[in-house]
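Page 37, top half.
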Amino acid sequence: MTRENTGRRRWALVVAAAVVCGLALVPARPASAQVGVMVQPVGGRVTGVLANRCGATDSDHYGVDIAGNSGMAIGAAYAGTVAFAGWTSGGGNMVTLSHAGGYQTRYLHMVGAASVVVGQQVGQGQVLGHVGSTGNSTGPHLHFEIRRHGAVYDIRPAYACGGMVTKGAPINLPFADLTPADAVPDRFAFVNSAGVVYAKDGAYSSWRAVNAGGASKVVLGGNWIGWLQGGDFFVKDGVFGEWLSMAGGGQVRDIAVSGDRFAFVNSAGVVYAKDGAYSSWRAVNAGGASKVVLGGNWIGWLQGGDFFVKDGVFGEWLSMAGGGQVRDIAVSGDRFAFVNSAGVVYAKDGAYSSWRAVNAGGASKVVLGGNWIGWLQGGDFFAKDGIYAEWLTMAGGGQVSDVALTGQDWFAFVGGGNFFAKQGAYAPWLTMSGGGQVSGIAVTT
């Protein structure tokens, strides 16, 4: 036998063995592929990646296991058609979606019957069912698979044992023949004078009421819409999701949401936070707080005029700004900002770097989004594209009562009780909601 024939034979044996073991993997880096087109269907900790069960080996395991609390909503990784929705002996309650380009995604072990039916068209992020432990399962988790043309897709570059994933975040893999589906839409929300929260996905879509009234604040984060109503904290998993009561008893004074992290301040000033809508709350301070903010992995709070943060729910707390002079705070990624009693806005990149003043005084509120720093000063809206940039007047006239901005260059403000927004610092303003009834706004992308 020639050396060439021997090499061909060895290669054929390798391929055959891979197919027999069920691991005829589609390469994770095909040419000309869009990266991050599919999104994470749930948030949680990775407990298995293909044959690696994070401590054991199972050659018949073809997906990623993401541990989570029973009842967590499972979103579609990409728009598609429901090819299967029902019971399987190993997968329990299961949904299979067919997508463009020959892709399929599978969602196993749901706690109850699927929320969709065979033949139904679903959008990216649409709820398919809820995390459970049905079928061959040892605890609540989602077993999530990606296949293409029937072959298991190699997801290993995107997942690591023990790592955390965030629902709705892009899956860091290339997907040939798929195009971005705007999984994380531009979402807008406001509270009107009757306390009704309205939300919509896309600047030109229609508003939808998400409560019956009585709200005093609305926040957005990941796919979640949260609001404070009568001292209680409620959320919805998307504009069309079911609402959940996060914290009741009429004791909630402030709220925040970022990705799958939730936080609130109670009437004693204790800040509580948790990762995952169905997990347990954990106190992160001893009391006295008046405001809580979330950004990146950071939890920040305003307490007695001082600014504190924690790097995650279980991290150590740091004093960011003391002296009892802090009046407002903001966090976005690793950027921090506060307003002191003279209305001077200070900002810095990195928890241990030095503060830098970005205005001369008179500010009452600071907001952060992407590289932008924005503040409300004397009824006007100002912004800077980074700590060292020149400031811009976004909206003047002394009529601005609330401001917001995002990392995708969306700017928003309330002026005269109306909601205005625009994408791009130099774009024209859009009237999002008129009638002079808007009292608070939120925007996320």
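Page 37, bottom half:
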Amino acid sequence: MSDVPPPPLSVEELRRLVASGSVDTVLVVFTDMQGRLQGKRVHAQFFLDDTLGHGTEGCNYLLAVDVDMNTVDGYSMSSWDTGYGDFVFRPDLSTLRPAPWLPGTVMVQCDLTWLDGSDVVQSPRQILLRQVKRAEAMGFVALAGTELEFMVFDDSYEQAWDKGYRDLTPSNRYNVDYSIIGTTRVEPLLRDIRNMMHRAGLVVESAKGECNYGQHEIAFKYAEVVTTADRHTVYKTAAKEIAANHGKALTFMSKVNEREGNSCHIHMSLRGLDGSIVFADPASPDGRSDLFKSFVAGVMAFLPDFSLLYAPNINSYKRFQPGSFAPTAVAWGEDNRTCALRVVGKGPALRVENRVPGGDVNPYLALAAMLGSGLQGIEQDMQLEPALVGNGYVAERTRVATTLRAARDAFTQSPVVKTILGASGPRTPGAELGGVAEELRVAEEVVRHYTNMADVELRAYDAAVTDWELVRGFERL
């Protein structure tokens, strides 16, 4: 096997595969609010003859439902009052790739537009693309890598459902962090995922065991931020489908039980548009540029405002427990895993790791929040406070949000969230902003949309009766 994966498919290659009968299906997909791939299976010849030229349409409720696909109130872009119309899936042909875990299938990821051709600004991919445009206007390219952890169970997804997700059998019975013999037990599945992702065009680095029972991580090489988010969602979907083919279930749920949760650490750096190094400065005593320090200061300063995009679900907040390797302190440290932000690497490899997101995160939204916050720090020339030394779990620092409700309120009430999410260019004095009114419109629509997402989850959770309540109160209260 080559160390370099095949490039994404060209249209010409797809035509040859279809003509030979090797490919008959094209998955035409986009990523929804929950970070899931949604879309259609299009016959490959029809894709070439029709969909390729103008896309395909789908109901706009796909960005206005809960995790159960229920239609819910509160979304201005899609409702019974507006008739639940369509938007258009516009294929991004740079994402055309094999889907080797599925027979005769390739995949293409899409941007969403309205029927008049205007962007669906609430789309997660569009939110990230807006920050990419802003970075480019400031002279930067953003690079990132996401590290997804997951837990593997010997039960199938159907068995897990029938058992109410209780008393499942983890594929490892003990902590297999970095264990070779422990990971060998699950290697048939891990190997299949690695090789399928390689054939799909992802750059696979390694696999390792983690702390919780049956917990593992497969690492991929960093890339430009939109490419990273695209690959993240392909991998997350494929891993579940490959696990199902093995008769197993795996979950990226942030917190499955009282032990360690599933994280999604995000590593990020900037380069100049010409590929030049902008974070490192050999002339600086610590080897770090002022620009790097302002970027990290921005990410840290606005982390509480963007907790909703880093931790989007009720369950996300169960992960933030002392001594769990999930952060509780809004602080940065030198290679310090007790802090929300961990600075690692030197020279070209210098980067900041955000340890707040869990495995349930939507990568487009988290990357947009992190990049936008860092760019805001650069624009404001923010100063970075000294690194936290020691145990962040006991340090007297601002704490990471502990509930979805607190994160929702911080997101909704923060003026800087609208400033960042609306921006599509530099916000320096005299800069061309492309229309302040348009930026405000975009920001208000996005904030209102994702505030409602949180409200939907909070209402559902507040109405639910949990197993914990039944055990505590059925007889004894």
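Margin note: The longest strand covers residues 140-153.
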